[in-house]
Amino acid sequence: MDNKHDILELLRQVADGKVSPENAMLELKEAPFEDLAYAKIDFHRSVRQGAAEVIYGEGKTPEQIKGIVERMGEKGCRNILVTRISQETGDYLSRFVPIDYHKIPRLGIAFPEARPGRGNIVVATGGTSDMPVAEEAALTAEAMGNHVTRVYDVGVAGLHRLLSNLDILMQARCVIAVAGMEGALASVVGGLVDCPVIAVPTSVGYGASFGGLSALLSMLNSCASGCSVVNIDNGFGAGYLASRINQMEGIKEE
């Protein structure tokens, strides 16, 4: 019972008399999570939130990640995101499970499965140095079934670069604005588009940027309406939230 379609099928079988209510109850009781001692895998995450549980790789051993990913794959989970892992860990996992490893954002997608992109999310960066965080956001959104357009290196130091992409920005259902330094990109984008803007401060910048704190505070104090902020370098969180926003109409229709 790792997705809502499985649960619906089980309920239909109960209604048709093919499965007893007692057996159905047993399946549902066993379904929510599995205890691997070092991790409790939440198999009902896709039922509640529409996507499989995401594995935060930093701090976990390659063997632990392998155990979690393999079990999730056996349960039918696909496009399993494994964030913040090294090339070495990605190479290790590839010996046991199918995985697409992306070096720049240090992100792996296990049991990759092509999904038709819905809607349109635009990911924009202030500079090329913001790409690791931006790619984490973009790949997260794509793995969750969204169409993503990348507009990189369009920071306010050369505002004409951003304005030349105005038609792309204005067609988006949601824009993820990724920037370090003073973090001005989010406010500028927020003043140009009619869709939600998710601001992502990055730790890119010189000493007085305080590891992304100055960008975070700038984005939190943005005067542009409709602009929200995630944590420093949290590309995954931005991509996940953008997917929710982008697919809201489709979720309601289903």
From TrEMBL:
Upper classification of the organism: Bacteria, Bacillati, Bacillota, Clostridia, Eubacteriales
InterPro entries: P2CMN_synthase_LarB, PurE_dom
The gene coding this protein: larB
Protein name (database record): Nickel pincer cofactor biosynthesis protein LarB
Membrane-spanning parts: none
Biological process terms in GO annotation: 'de novo' IMP biosynthetic process
Residue ranges constituting the PurE domain according to the UniProt record: 119-251
Gene3D superfamilies: 3.40.50.1970
A GO MF label: hydrolase activity
Domain of life: Bacteria
Matching SMART domains: AIRC
Organism for this UniProt entry: Mordavella massiliensis
One Pfam family hit: AIRC
